[in-house]
Amino acid sequence: MKAIIGTDIKKAASLLQEGELVAIPTETVYGLAGNATDSRVVSMIFQVKNRPFFDPMIMHAQSIEAALPYIGDFPDVYKKLADIWMPGPLTLLCKKSPLVPDILTAGSDKVAVRIPNHPLTLQLLKNLPFPLAAPSANPFGYISPTTPGHVADQLGDKIPYILDGGPCAVGVESTILDYRNGSLIVLRKGGVSIEELEVLCGKVEVMDETENNPAAPGMLKSHYSPATPLRITPPYMLLNEYSPERIGYLGFQKRVESVPANNQFILSESGDLREAARNLFTCMRKLDNAGVDVIAVELVPDHGLGKAINDKLRRASV
Ligand code: TXA
Ligand code: MG
Known about the structure:
Blueprint: E1 4-6, H1 9-17, E2 22-24, E3 31-35, H2 39-49, E4 58-60, H3 64-67, H4 76-85, E5 90-95, H5 102-105, E6 110-114, H6 119-126, E7 132-133, H7 148-155, E8 161-163, E9 175-180, E10 183-188, H8 194-201, E11 205-206, E12 230-232, E13 247-251, E14 264-266, H9 273-288, E15 294-297, H10 305-316
């Protein structure tokens, strides 16, 4: 099989209706989508991604109204959040209804719900009588895809169709929130920043260092990794171990002198964290294909989307 890349929503919808998988654009990253209500289809997604069954998937719907039959309750604080970020880069954990298969939630009684903010995918969802299960469209543990080409490179021979919605506008995954005992808890830092959440809802808890944390089973410490070892360090610190041309550099604003210019990728020359988030995964992929032996990375300022970027970089590092 060789995936066709195109913008044909009807074709994508009919493949999904037939129980096939289709890669879909969202504003965060591309998703590997299938019928969320069909256990067989969901299990195919796990297989294609080579993802362990303990790692649950997000259910994508066209609107909260469309998601309601699949969720048990929707607390008031979620309504406030949904008014702003649904559609948007936010995922909310909700009690699941019996319509949601256990395989989707890895046995949890909560389902992760998201309304992606991408016109093609919203249109696609409107054409379907079911919500879509969609993890990021990358092999388990690798960098998430933010262009149709990224998806084709890695999963192109395993799926029939990639819906082309261009490069992703946000570039990092959705922020995942849970609501427990009256508190909001951030399970994954992502496209909605902690500061933005706190303006709306007051102080939120942030779950850090989540290795083997049962509340966020997919948040393994090592994740989003390029095949090339990635180290959080200024590149000159690696010069006693590697020659300069063997070192790649991922910087925030400025190039360095210690390694060749060809091996360097800059996230945002103007220092804009949103631009940096948009460029992050593409730069990581380019560095992974640059033929270097090690990638030196410097963290970005730790506020706004910088927190999500730094979280991804730490998880990608060895
Ligand atoms: O931006 C995104 O959220 C993208 C796009 C495609 O929507 N999706 C995405 O999915 O990042 P994925 O599968 O790569 O990561 C979703 C993570 C899981 O690893 C898991 O940690 C968490 O969401 N998750 C999903 N369902 C959960 C549940 N019921 N309870 C706890 N965590 C859950
Ligand atoms: Mg993922």
